[in-house]
Amino acid sequence: MATGGRRVTCCCAAVLLAAALLLSAPEATEAYDSLDPNGNITIKWDVMHWTPDGYVAVVTMHNYEQFRHIGAPGWRLGWTWAEQEVIWSMAGAQATEQGDCSRFKGNIPHSCKKDPVVVDLLPGTPYNMQIANCCKGGVMSTFTQDPANAASSFQLSVGLAGTTTEAVKLPKNFTLRNPGPGYTCGRAIVGKPSVFFTADGRRATRAFMTWKVTCTYSQFLAQKVPSCCVSLSSSYNSTAVNCPTCSCGCPNPNGTDCVKKGSPHLGSATGGPGKWSGQPLVECTWHMCPVRINWHVKQNYRDYWRVKITITNFNFRMNYTEWNLVVQHPNFDNITQLFGLNYKPLTPFGGGINDVAMLWGVKPDNDVLMQPGKPGSVQGELLLRKDSQTFTIGKGWAFPRRVYFNGDNCVMPSPEYYPSLPRMQAL
């Protein structure tokens, strides 16, 4: 396990320099991810009915990212109205602020903000305030893990907006937060009106007008430092290779951005269970990461080899619901059996290359990674068949090339420190 053995260190300055170089990458490439090159969240805005001073629309967000989901406390969608539009009413979601509605007498709009921000309603919302695909607390899964919950919808009645397709002005400056930054949204583009079918499939209706907005994710925009790191260990070497020092940033001199385990001030520092602070509060470690993944080469049989994966949560402010891992390794085309894990192969490079696996927990046993001490870790194992032409334990081959946790690329140790075979043992 990564909790013992030699501690591998690295210069904090080098880590910070690398982060600075990544943050200074050209804007056009910030959101590109080679393991999910086409991943995005698409917002579809369908005008369904005209009203005396505007329209009623259904807004649906579809998560087309392969392994990145939006967890608690959920998405926050914002935009800027083109003119003086207001939201008369909503179902399935609500605006966070009403704004200044003093110009209205009698019937007061739901929101008069020029730049409203909308959030999903919570589970258990009364039925008369719901629509399909709403009221999940803003949580959106991926199509890979849970396709039934990979979309989120709400309805709104817009006033002072025009009552024809020619008169309607498209909103602009769309923003999507989860709830922090990370997503960049393009402009709204009018497309072919959506078509809807009745449950029996015998009648089709269509929207009067449809436009779409595409939002892509950048880890560098989401946080200044990485959010996870990887440690390595094996049964054939007693030395554990820990996460590099300051993988996720270094503690300040006063130590105010981390808390020692068992500290009497921990309860007040966390803000209470379930309260969102916007920033992780981590246990003080040499790597300072909210999450650590340990890859342990457990057993080496004649025809098979076995890997144990342990994920540890050091973030006192977060339970990671429906977590997932994406791991790149050349032997994943020979996965034989899994223990405590679900699996789906990803093939981002095409050409029959199957070296990327998406892994996630089994409900209800280990699909939630709880806060430290509750118990704060989950485990699973992989059994892989050996390919006699490629398999070797030597030169770090048995360890992953890349590891993602919840869609974020984790910091790996330097290959020169990987656990090695004893000198006299054959490869």
List the helices and strands and how they pair.
Blueprint: H1 12-23, E1 41-51, E2 54-63, E3 76-80, E4 86-91, E5 93-95, E6 117-120, E7 151-159, E8 172-177, E9 183-185, E10 189-191, E11 195-197, E12 204-206, E13 209-217, H2 219-222, E14 228-234, E15 237-241, E16 258-259, H3 266-270, E17 282-283, E18 291-300, E19 304-313, E20 320-321, E21 324-328, E22 335-339, E23 341-346, E24 356-361, E25 368-369, E26 377-385, E27 402-405, E28 408-409
Parallel strand pairs: 14-18, 16-17
Antiparallel strand pairs: 1-2, 1-13, 2-7, 3-6, 3-8, 4-7, 5-6, 9-13, 10-13, 11-12, 14-15, 18-19, 19-26, 20-25, 21-24, 21-27, 22-26, 23-24, 27-28
Keywords: Glycoprotein, Signal
Organism: Panicum hallii var. hallii
Family: Belongs to the COBRA family.
Describe the model:
The protein has helices at 12-23, 219-222, 266-270; strands at 41-51, 54-63, 76-80, 86-91, 93-95, 117-120, 151-159, 172-177, 183-185, 189-191, 195-197, 204-206, 209-217, 228-234, 237-241, 258-259, 282-283, 291-300, 304-313, 320-321, 324-328, 335-339, 341-346, 356-361, 368-369, 377-385, 402-405, 408-409. With 427 residues, the protein is mostly beta strands. Strands 1, 2, 4, 7, 9, 10 and 13 form a seven-stranded antiparallel β-sheet that branches. Strands 15-14-18-19-26-22 form a six-stranded mixed β-sheet, with no helix packed on it. Strands 23-24-21-27-28 form a five-stranded antiparallel β-sheet, with no helix packed on it. It starts with 11 loop residues before the first helix and ends in an 18-residue tail after the last strand. Mean pLDDT is 87; it is low at 1-30 and 271-275.
